[in-house]
Structures are given as C-alpha cells and as structure tokens.
Amino acid sequence: MNKLMTMAVAGTLLGVSVASFAAVRAAHVRPGNWALSGGSVVVAWVPLNAAGATTISFSLPGAARKVLTYSAECAVAAPEGNTRAYLDLDIIVNDVVVPPTGGSYDAFCSSNGTVATDGWTHPSITVAIPGKAGVNTVKIRARRNSAATGIQLGDSSLVIHD
Q1: What is the CATH number of the domain that holds 102?
Q2: Does the pTM exceed 0.70?
Q3: For residues 95 and 45, is the Cβ–Cβ distance under 8 A?
Q4: For the segment 104-162, what is each residue's pLDDT rounded down to a tens digit?
Q5: Residue 129 forms beta bridges with which residues?
Q6: Is 15 part of any domain?
Q7: Three-state secondary structure call for residue 53
Q8: Which secondary-structure segment (H or E) carries 126?
Q9: Quick check: 72 and 155 in contact, CB under 8 A?
C-alpha cells in the first residue's frame, strides 16, 4: 500500500473511532400507540417511555449542547379530502421550546385525505438542545392542526447523546 493510501485509511479509522465515543445520555422506547382525537382538546403531552411518563430526566456533569432525536410512527385523521391536516411537535428542554419546533407550523406528519387514521409513516426529528449541569428535563407536546380530527404516535424512540 502506498503512503497516500495508508494516510487515507488511517484518517478514516480515526474518524470512525472518534465517532464511537459519543455518550448516550438517555434512551427511551415506547411501544404501542398513543392517540389524541375528537373533542376540543387539540394539544397534549406525549408519553415518552413504556411507563407513559411525559417528562424524561437526564443528568449532565456540566453545561453542554447535546443532540436529541425523536422518532415515532405517525398518522393523522381528517375530514375526507383534507390533505393539509397535520400533527406538529414542540420539543421542550428545561421548560424552553427548542427551535425549530416551536409554534404550530412544523408538521411531523400529515393526513392523506381519508377519514381514517391511516397512511402511517415513521418520521424522526433531530435537534441540538441546550443542556445544563445537573438534572435536565425533556417533554414533547403534540398538536392537531388544520382540521385534524385525530392524531396518533406509536412505537417511539427518544435518544439524547453527545
């Protein structure tokens, strides 16, 4: 192997080994479905683990930015023909909404024009979050928008890492 190839391989291996040291600060899985449908309630806290907790805590030795990824099966019900209805999520860390998830204009998934809660997708969102020294909290708020009659999230995963 020539010297240039050896340096390229060494650089690649160094990059791989550096990436493998990222620490997972929290990891939660929630099997099954959670739904918000009908009535006047359009906003609710999302259960984030198998026990149904709507607030997750994790600790950090010092203040630092971390990476949060939330992924879930997602479906939206709406009146026949409405393909504009959607579910949006606000990710809230230490009682502060993390951009770009604030407000009601960031669709996580949308309706497919049928009345049923169908057309399941499995989207995810990854955001940089501000962490503080000590205990940190994460909550996710879901909202029905644009005449959505029901929203569902299922088989979700929440991971926070360096």
Answers
A1: 2.60.120.760
A2: yes
A3: no
A4: 788 999 999 999 888 899 999 999 999 999 999 999 999 999 999 999 999 999 999 99
A5: 66
A6: no
A7: coil
A8: strand 124-131
A9: yes
Q: Give the pair of three-digit tokens for residue 44.
A: 């609710």
Q: What domain range is 65 assigned to?
A: 23-161
Specify which residues 99 forms β-bridges with: none
Helix (H) or strand (E) holding 159: strand 150-161
Specify the number of domains making up the chain.
1
Tokens 């951009």 appear where?
A: 99
Nearest to 59 by CA among 25, 95, 23, 24: 25
Residue with tokens 């879901």: 142
Token pair 């791989």 is found at 16
30 domain-assigned? yes
Angle among Cα 36, 146, 125 to the nearest 5 degrees reads 65
Low-confidence winner among 13-17, 19-23, 47-51, 61-65 (lowest mean pLDDT): 13-17
